[in-house]
């Protein structure tokens, strides 16, 4: 009987060990960290004129892969389908400027946030005297836009529900809708809008820079992968205290050299 119980205990431990072999272990064994990303979010992930994916989050992921001792593989994925793609093993992790929301957290797990941002507005210059905050847009006479599947869309439909809404598959199309006076305002994260107002605004947009939401951005993993979350969280603590995070952040948020690489 004792031998039988010991055998059962050993089998249970073995099965538990297998259950806890998560994303990080798989990436190390494979030699590659596969990350799903929609490279359209300046300055987090974007495609330069040479067709390379660059950005703040990309550099963080390169540092993460280096710490694992593996190569980084970026898997371009449309944002509105990125969670289903993770759940069907198209890649190991989401690294695409994703806001940690309670709705998303019901479907996937998140590591600790690597940055906190908030939704802001780009409005038509002609409306600068009328529109001072998102509340002023909550009227059927206004047409607002954002990227489909993002928290910009969620916020538009929740906080500015009375306005007309039309979303786009990517940020640039949505911004151009406002530039071309087909929409009155574009709703998106502050780091993107602070760049887009000059890069795509053509002098026709005004940036209302005060964030009106709290949005922690984090890496998304499959449910139950707590060993990998533990590893990523410890890695984030390390780079925040050894200068790595500050160096990468300064490159993308305090300098503008990278704009020369864009089309």
How would you briefly describe this protein structure?
With 263 residues, the chain is α/β, with parallel strands linked by helices. It is built from ten helices and 15 strands.
Shape: globular
Strand ordering within the main sheet: 11-10-12-9-13
- Name of the level-1 CATH class of the largest domain: Alpha Beta
Distance between the termini: 72 Å
Uncertain segments of ≥5 residues (pLDDT<50)? 2-19
Number of helices: 10
**Major sheet attributes:** 5 strands, mixed
Structural class by secondary-structure content: alpha/beta
Count of domains? 2
CATH superfamily membership of the largest domain: Periplasmic binding protein-like II
- Rg, rounded, reads 21 Å
> Can you tell me the CATH architecture of the largest domain?
3-Layer(aba) Sandwich
Strand content: 15-25%
Percent range for helical residues? 25-40%
CATH topology of the largest domain: D-Maltodextrin-Binding Protein, domain 2
Mean pLDDT figure? 91
Order of helices and strands: HHEEEEHEHEHEEEEHEHEHEEEHH
Number of strands: 15
If you had to describe this structure to a student in words, what would you say it looks like?
It is built from 10 helices and 15 strands. With 263 residues, it is of the alpha/beta class. The strands form 5 sheets. A 5-stranded mixed beta sheet has the order 11-10-12-9-13. A 3-stranded parallel beta sheet has the order 5-1-6. The protein has a 3-stranded antiparallel beta sheet with strand order 2-3-4. Strand 3 and strand 4 form a beta hairpin. Helix 3 packs antiparallel against helix 10. The longest helix is centred in the N-terminal third of the chain and has 18 residues. It is globular. The N terminus is likely disordered. It comes from Metapseudomonas resinovorans NBRC 106553. Belongs to the bacterial solute-binding protein 3 family. Keywords: Signal. This is Putative amino acid ABC transporter substrate-binding protein.
